[in-house]
Automatic annotation (TrEMBL):
Organism field: Aureimonas phyllosphaerae
InterPro entries in UniProt: HisE, PRib-ATP_PPHydrolase-like
First-listed, main subcellular location of the protein, grouped into a coarse class: cytoplasm
Gene3D superfamilies for this protein: MazG-like
Family per similarity comment: Belongs to the PRA-PH family.
Keyword Nucleotide-binding among UniProt keywords: yes
HAMAP family to which the protein is assigned, alphabetical: HisE
Gene that this polypeptide is encoded by: hisE
Alphabetized PANTHER family for the sequence: HISTIDINE BIOSYNTHESIS BIFUNCTIONAL PROTEIN, HISTIDINE BIOSYNTHESIS BIFUNCTIONAL PROTEIN HIS7
GO cellular component, one term: cytoplasm
Name used for this protein in its record: Phosphoribosyl-ATP pyrophosphatase
Keyword Plastid: no
The EC number(s) this enzyme carries: 3.6.1.31
BP GO annotations: L-histidine biosynthetic process
Length: 106
């Protein structure tokens, strides 16, 4: 299954690519400030799509947001694993991780 870990690897590879057609490489060259601005814009577009109750638009904007967030994390040198560990530690604090895993496994 496709997941954010695979997209993180793609982003890392493409950010360093000399391919002139790579949007990721172009974005990476523009630096943290520009990418942070893009994350903000995509977040606003996600909010607008959510409030419009258009599921297809929301799905597309959420995908744009996650992609741009991964590019930002990459440029700042923060691994997705660190973000996931932070989320996991929050579930551990509430004791809900095992319950969610049991429900997921059926
Ligand atoms: N998931 C994405 C992805 N999501 C969104 N985008 C791009 O993000 C841009 C967002 O559109 P905008 O209108 O906000 O921006 P824009 O006007 O095109 O450009 P800006 O000047 O504003 O940056 C579009 O050009 C999309 O193509 C993505 N570009 C790449 N990926 C992934 O990255 C991989 C590598 O892509 P390349 O780097 O292009 O080879 C792809 O195979 C995908 O898996």
């Amino acid at each position: 299954m496709f997941d954010l870990t695979r997209l993180e690897a793609i982003v890392a590879e493409r950010a360093a690519s000399p391919d002139p057609d790579s949007y990721t490489a172009k974005l990476a060259r523009r630096g943290v400030g520009k990418v942070a601005q893009k994350v903000g814009e995509e977040a606003v577009e996600t909010v607008i799509a959510a409030l419009s109750e258009d599921d297809k638009a929301l799905t597309g904007e959420a995908a744009d947001l996650l992609y741009h967030l991964l590019v930002l994390l990459h440029l700042r040198g923060v691994p997705l694993a660190d973000v996931m560990a932070e989320l996991q530690s929050r579930t551990a604090r509430t004791g809900l991780a095992e319950k969610a895993a049991r429900t997921h496994e059926g």
